[in-house]
């Protein structure tokens, strides 16, 4: 069986601060295959970008450092590679699109020269040939009058055009994997749609894998194949995109979905998840979400839930799970093959997981809600 394009296993990252050690990423596991899109979703501070920086090998160290886990690219662990070998992979085989294009681009070098440098350094092209390829690339990402604008500087472009330049830089060497960190931040809705359509088109054209980091549920609905939801430095749910939107298996995911404005709820008060995410310096015991969870019970305050493998409704009924019983739901999933705590293996493509003791209750609640709505 061929190795997955990217497989993150039990990745852990901490930061040493004056106030103590902050665990920013506490055992994250996910994977993505060629030609597929994984969306990593969560509030600000959930560890999405830190995980991506650790995968790319660009984590600021100190104060940050990877303390455990594996990052497998085509079956090879990037964390055990030498710095020179990893630099050869970065840019050529895997690239990253940063959320703040104006800060990521060099303000005193023209965009054409920055794009051409990729070809000169990695492909050994002459300056003339590299410049020609840079203009072709700008035209490919739909920069108007690319030949004339190649000599312009980043501040002379709009936010949407700068983001297209960042996409062009990431795509320059036709990598197998792109990590896009909040690529639509600070862009208006129409430009967001254009950028996302462009990323989806390029992913199909080059059959590359795409990891899309965002906090916007609306952005990922049409482009993602699988969603991994992060909270407090951990994955709390993974699911195919349609399954997650239809039947979330974690109360945090359900809260995020209920917080999205909907036309059919016009005039109703918009739902908001109470409280704020915990500090990585003072993580609560048990489930990190329990102080904000409307379904929290005593076990949630004392025992951290593993990442359960979520069975289908038919499977849980076959194992005798009684509706509304979180304990029986957990029992059913353990029989049906629960995710092994500490194994670090991401779920198989198309699989579902939930880090909630009462994930079965969440599915039942959604089923009851849908039935009442029907």
From TrEMBL:
Major site of localization recorded for this protein: membrane
UniProt keyword terms in alphabetical order: ATP-binding, Cell membrane, Membrane, Nucleotide-binding, Transport
Ranges where the ABC transporter domain occurs: 8-257
Region of interest (Disordered), ranges: 322-355
GO molecular function: ATP binding
Cell division in keyword set: no
Keyword Nucleotide-binding: yes
Subcellular localization: Cell membrane
Domain of life, per lineage: Bacteria
Membrane topology, as annotated: Peripheral membrane protein
Ranges of biased composition (kind: Low complexity): 322-343
InterPro entries: AAA+_ATPase, ABC_Ni/Peptide_Import, ABC_transporter-like_ATP-bd, ABC_transporter-like_CS, Oligopep_ABC_C
Pfam families reported in the protein's UniProt record: ABC_tran (PF00005), oligo_HPY (PF08352)
Family, similarity comment: Belongs to the ABC transporter superfamily.
Protein name per its UniProtKB record: ABC transporter ATP-binding protein
């Amino acid at each position: 069986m061929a190795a997955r394009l990217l497989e993150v296993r039990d990745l852990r990252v901490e930061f040493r601060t004056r106030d103590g050690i902050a665990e920013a990423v506490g055992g994250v596991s996910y994977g993505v295959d060629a030609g597929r899109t994984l969306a990593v979703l969560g509030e600000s501070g959930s560890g999405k970008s830190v995980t991506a920086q650790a995968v790319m090998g660009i984590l600021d160290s100190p104060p940050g450092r990877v303390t455990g886990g594996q990052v497998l690219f085509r079956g090879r662990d990037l964390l055990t590679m030498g710095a020179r070998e990893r630099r050869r992979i970065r840019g050529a085989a895997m690239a990253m699109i940063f959320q703040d294009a104006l800060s990521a681009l060099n303000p005193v070098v023209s965009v054409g020269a920055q794009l051409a440098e990729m070809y000169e350094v990695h492909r050994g092209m002459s300056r003339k040939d590299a410049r020609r390829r840079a203009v072709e690339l700008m035209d490919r990402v739909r920069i108007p009058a690319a030949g004339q604008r190649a000599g312009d500087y980043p501040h002379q472009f709009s936010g949407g055009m700068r983001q297209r330049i960042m996409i062009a830089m990431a795509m320059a060497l036709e990598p197998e994997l792109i990590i896009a960190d909040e690529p639509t931040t600070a862009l208006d809705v129409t430009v967001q749609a254009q950028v996302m359509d462009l990323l989806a088109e390029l992913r199909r054209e080059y059959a590359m894998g795409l990891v899309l980091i965002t906090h916007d549920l609306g952005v990922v609905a049409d482009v993602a194949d699988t969603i991994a939801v992060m909270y407090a430095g951990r994955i709390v749910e993974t699911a195919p995109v349609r399954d997650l939107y239809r039947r979330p298996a974690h109360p945090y995911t359900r809260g995020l979905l209920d917080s999205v404005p909907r036309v059919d709820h016009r005039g109703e008060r918009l739902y908001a998840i109470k409280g704020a995410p915990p500090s990585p310096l003072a993580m609560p015991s048990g489930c990190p979400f329990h102080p904000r969870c409307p379904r929290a019970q005593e076990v949630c305050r004392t025992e951290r839930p593993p990442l359960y493998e979520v069975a289908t409704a038919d499977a849980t009924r076959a194992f005798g799970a009684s509706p509304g019983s979180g304990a029986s739901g957990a029992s059913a999933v353990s029989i049906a093959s629960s995710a092994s705590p500490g194994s670090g293996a991401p779920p198989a493509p198309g699989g579902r997981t939930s880090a909630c003791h009462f994930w079965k209750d969440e599915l039942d609640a959604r089923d009851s809600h849908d039935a009442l709505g029907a």
